[in-house]
Amino acid sequence: MRELDLIRWIRRSWKFDPRAVPVGPGDDCAVVRCGGEKFLVTTDQVLDGVHFVLKRDGPAAAGRKAMARNLSDIAAMAGEPLAAVVCAALPRGLSTAGCKAIYAGMRRLGDRFGCPVVGGDIGAWDGHLAIGVTVLGRPGPRGAVLRSGAKVGDAICVTGSLGGAWQARRDLRFAPRVSEARRLARRVDLHAMIDISDGLAADLGHIAEESGVGAELIAADIPVHRGAAGLDAALHDGEDYELLFTLPAGQVPRLRRLDLGVSVTRIGTIVRGRCLTLVHSDARRVRIQARGWEHKT
User: I need a labelling partner for 228 at 20 to 30 A (CA). Which of 139, 142, 221, 276 fits?
Assistant: First the structure.
């Protein structure tokens, strides 16, 4: 079964009281109301042989990536991380030093973003290392930025450069864009945002689907990482964990004056319809398939 098909089935099957769960499945985080406040909740896992290779990358890198992926989800909602709980299935025979290194990798990154590990569960088994992390956060003053707010005429922008992250192992050392997202939310009107985990085309497809719009990208404007194998890699590789967002086109000059410490590039425009289109320099228009990384069962 395809991952997205299962997610769609779950969303159809479970109903939520909007007073308690203002935002359920379908975004980077859920939004849950508790004691008069709203909180962000996100969970993600990393698996040996899928998201890292333990023998090659080491246990500290595995722990760091498990924490980083969840912090990136908080960033995608322009939120502030508060705390994390961890569920780890450790392979039998992993050394004491290796076990400690997993948690040290999580702790170092968590400390950097004010997100301590406050609990969880540990088990041992005969399989590969699996680490699941749940992070709790708080929306920014303007509220959580969802995938569903993109409007026709919006500029489409991205931080950093894209492509080749898995091959170059940048996926193990990326910095979640938590601070950058919060600064963006304070200075411009973010309509929609997502972090690029599955690939630019796939994640733009998520924004388009949730917002009921289409998108037009300018091929020459997409920032391709110098280590990537061309434009196709920037569109489909995934694991970049950069921010992809939309905002009113008239605010792009203000955006360009912001010093975020990372490049920000306008790469296209939100349009009517449901198609994703790539416009080349010779005026050719090619429909993009919203494909990228996806789990299959």
Answer: 276
